């Protein structure tokens, strides 16, 4: 008889908090001020946008925390959706993570890491390596393979790597912020963050202003993407009823404060118009340009290295956390059976990690950074909305269930978050129908896959 190896609870509360921060702080905080400046043309509005996106993410974290404390299993929302909506919707969530959301996040982060590394190398060194795009994709693929190998060997190894990196990354960000305010003496005020908001040029009426703010918000939401990932390892967190809600809320709060301070520092160093102008030069990174203005080439190089470390760490955390979704699907016999195998020596969902790595590498070669992020944000908010709605439904349908943590602001905040997610999805479909249909098509491709595995599952049960 085959002895089944199960996942072990080895992740502490403090490690879970750091994993939330690690899974979020990647490239967005260093890059996304550029499209936001191009949309809004005002520092106060940019900071308001970051704050609004952060607060909405916090409401989402509160909703997820209630469900995670009730059902702390591997797979996060897959487990909650299975209870609330049934296996079919839960499967579509897991499938969407494989073909769109989590795999695309891994690919996009690896892509940015590779771009940043390529930009740091002397031109003479890379001259004979082929086209820049080819080299960037090769390096991104190698990074995914390397970090998947790290997480293949154990969750403690992966979390330890993330812990070391994120502590160093946050310390470096705080040094940058401190120097921007205490050590850098701007010759003249360069930011309008405390002045009267300038209405964006695109906003000739009320609807135009909303459109501009919404476009900027999409950029901010990419910066916050990943706050829910710690729920995926619910089966491996110690005292999950307490530690998962704590990690979600405290980790998201830390990220909001960091992002506001970083963007305020950018706006102190350079005017908003300078960031907006960078839309014409997409190879430039806002944080690197700001550091170069503040501290010269050395400052720019230091920030480039910080971005390398940040995207490296965020890629590692995302690989570690999201592979558990595919493990949970397979354990329910709704996916490839080999993905439910736990490595007998390392205690990891090793085959699920390999599967995720293979698909993420494929996505690196299929799309660009912007295509990947646009797809995953649209798809993610379909399921974020389902989480908020799930809190409302479960409270009504099963009031008797034990709730170690209850979402603050119920029912107003979950209803508000669900309404926002629904509006974002509808506006995205209207504004970018082709991109939206591509995302919906990839998710819908899971329908025949689901019925195939359901049929196969039934046949296996009969035997």
UniProtKB/TrEMBL annotation:
TM spans (from-to): 50-69, 90-114, 126-152, 164-182, 202-224, 244-262, 350-369, 375-395, 407-430, 436-454
Which Pfam families does the record cross-reference, listed alphabetically?
A: AA_permease_2
> Could you name the Gene Ontology cellular component terms for this entry?
membrane
Q: List the InterPro entries.
A: AA/rel_permease1 (IPR002293), AminoAcid_Transporter (IPR050598)
User: Molecular function (GO) terms listed?
Assistant: L-amino acid transmembrane transporter activity
Q: Which UniProt keywords apply?
A: Membrane, Transmembrane, Transmembrane helix
Chief localization = membrane
Q: How does it sit in the membrane?
A: Multi-pass membrane protein
In which compartments does the protein localize?
Membrane
- Please, which domain of life does this record's source organism belong to? Bacteria
What protein name applies here?
Basic amino acid/polyamine antiporter, APA family
Which organism is the protein's source?
A: Parapedobacter composti
């Amino acid at each position: 008889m085959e002895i089944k190896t199960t996942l072990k609870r080895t992740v502490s509360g403090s490690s879970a908090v750091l994993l939330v921060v690690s899974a979020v702080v990647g490239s967005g905080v260093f890059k996304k001020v550029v499209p936001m400046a191009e949309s809004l043309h005002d520092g106060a509005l940019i900071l308001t946008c970051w704050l609004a996106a952060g607060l909405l993410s916090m409401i989402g974290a509160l909703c997820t925390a209630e469900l995670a404390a009730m059902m702390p299993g591997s797979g996060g929302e897959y487990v909650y959706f299975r209870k609330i909506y049934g296996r079919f919707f839960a499967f579509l969530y897991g499938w969407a993570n494989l073909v769109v959301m989590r795999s695309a996040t891994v690919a996009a982060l690896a892509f940015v890491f590779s771009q940043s590394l390529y930009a740091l190398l002397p031109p003479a060194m890379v001259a004979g390596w082929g086209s820049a795009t080819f080299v960037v994709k090769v390096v991104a693929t190698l990074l995914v393979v390397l970090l998947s190998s790290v997480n293949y060997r154990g969750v403690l190894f992966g979390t330890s790597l993330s812990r070391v990196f994120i502590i160093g990354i946050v310390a470096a960000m705080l040094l940058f912020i401190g120097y921007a305010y205490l050590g850098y003496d701007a010759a003249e005020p360069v930011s309008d963050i405390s002045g009267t908001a300038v209405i964006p040029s695109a906003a000739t009426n009320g609807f135009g202003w909303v459109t501009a703010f919404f476009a900027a918000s999409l950029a901010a939401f990419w910066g916050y993407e990943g706050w829910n990932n710690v729920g995926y390892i619910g089966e491996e967190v110690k005292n999950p009823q307490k530690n998962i809600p704590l990690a979600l809320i405290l980790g998201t709060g830390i990220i909001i404060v960091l992002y506001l301070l970083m963007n305020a520092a950018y706006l102190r160093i350079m005017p908003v118009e300078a960031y907006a102008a960078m839309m014409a030069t997409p190879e430039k990174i806002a944080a690197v340009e700001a550091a170069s203005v503040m501290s010269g080439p050395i400052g720019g190089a230091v920030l480039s290295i910080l971005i390398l470390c940040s995207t490296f760490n965020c890629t590692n955390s995302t690989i570690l956390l999201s592979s558990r979704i595919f493990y949970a699907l397979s354990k329910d016999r709704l996916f490839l059976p080999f993905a439910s195998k736990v490595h007998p020596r390392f205690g990891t969902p090793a085959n699920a990690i390999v599967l995720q790595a293979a698909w993420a590498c494929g996505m690196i070669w299929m799309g660009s950074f912007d295509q990947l992020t646009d797809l995953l944000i649209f798809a993610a908010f379909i399921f974020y909305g389902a989480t908020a709605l799930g809190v409302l439904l479960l409270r009504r349908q099963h009031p008797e269930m034990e709730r170690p943590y209850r979402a603050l602001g119920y029912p107003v905040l979950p209803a508000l978050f669900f309404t926002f997610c629904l509006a974002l999805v509808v506006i995205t479909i209207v504004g970018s129908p082709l991109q939206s249909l591509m995302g919906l098509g990839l998710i819908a491709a899971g329908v025949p896959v689901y019925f195939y595995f359901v049929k196969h599952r039934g046949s296996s049960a009969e035997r």
